[in-house]
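We close this part of the discussion by returning to an individual protein. The amino acid sequence and the backbone structure tokens for this protein are reproduced below:
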Amino acid sequence: MTNTADQGAADSPTRSTRLPRSARRRQLLAAAQHVFVAQGYHAAAMDDIADRAGVSKPVLYQHFPGKLDLYVALLEEHAAAMVEAVRVALDSTTDNKQRVAATIAAYFRFVDEDGGAFRLLFESDLTNQPEVRERVEGTTLACAELIGEVIRDDAGLPKEQARLLAVGLVGMAQVAARFWLADAGSIPRDAAARLLASLSWRGIGGFPRTGEAHDAPHTD
């Protein structure tokens, strides 16, 4: 006969695997990110994600009805993180040269540090799905809107012009950061970010703050 202490010891591994719903969700999302980044959406299987998380498929389906739900949840999480990183960079100083540097650095950190999350946002193989395309494009636009507000307020440009300049900056930061990573980081990350920030500032710095002596370039 098993005594109470022995029974408790036998039960403890099972109990230790029971996580609060929020913690289980984070665990499943981390496992899904690993699988999606490694295999791409189409090659990834729910079996692979469940195995990676160390759970049964029924447990996985309790939290996410299907593979697309998992993918979209990851997109939303990392899109929010990218937009917040840009917001923090812009709010970190009132010096626009430093704002440019901080924003460029945020993109380099994102592609370098977040477990390949940038591949879901910037290199997705599922942009034919409206839910995915909306979130991918929405991330770029949300970051550009934040930057565009600063350009509009400081340079006095019309909203449409400020937004176009902001989209250009976002696109340059994103593409250059991804190229830097694919190039195996042949230039140290901070040095690469500073180099691109210098290029960016040489362009956007030509639009002075409203009220400064020299005229900003305008288009008809």
Q: What stands out?
A: DSSP finds ten helices and no strands in the chain. Residues 1-16, 213-220 have pLDDT under 50 and may be disordered. The chain has two domains: 20-65, 74-208.
